[in-house]
Amino acid sequence: MTKKQIKAKYKKETEKLVNILKEYQPEKIILFGSVAQDRARPDSDLDLCIIKKFRGSKLDQHQKITDLLWEHDYSYKIEPDVCIYAPEVFNRELKEFHPFIEEINNTGRILYDKDRAKAKG
Predict the structure, then answer these.
(1) Fewer Cβ neighbours under 10 Å: the N or C end of the chain?
(2) In this predicted structure, what is the pLDDT of residue 75?
């Protein structure tokens, strides 16, 4: 696969995933990792950080996302690797210089922002 083909493949799958994940009602969806930095290989996964207020455990939230993807018959042509943070936790860990959160914040690309979507609509 050429770099152009890889980029097109990931763009298409990312858009498909984001459209499904909007139903989960996140505040933000952030793409990070190799795909966000244009370093994707054919076997790269899709690293997504979802910012959302929630109750219960992260495990419960991951199950809700898995169920949502199943409902839409998402075929996992590219494996999504999703992390979920409540806004206050994400912001607190950012202030505490948590390396993983800093990477997401510094190199990630915001694919969906509820506040921006409301402003446009």
Answers:
(1) C
(2) 74
Architecture of domain 3-120: 2-Layer Sandwich (3.30)
Predicted TM-score (pTM) of the model is 0.91
pLDDT in tens, 62-80: 999 999 988 988 776 788 8
Q: Where are the domains of the chain?
A: 3-120
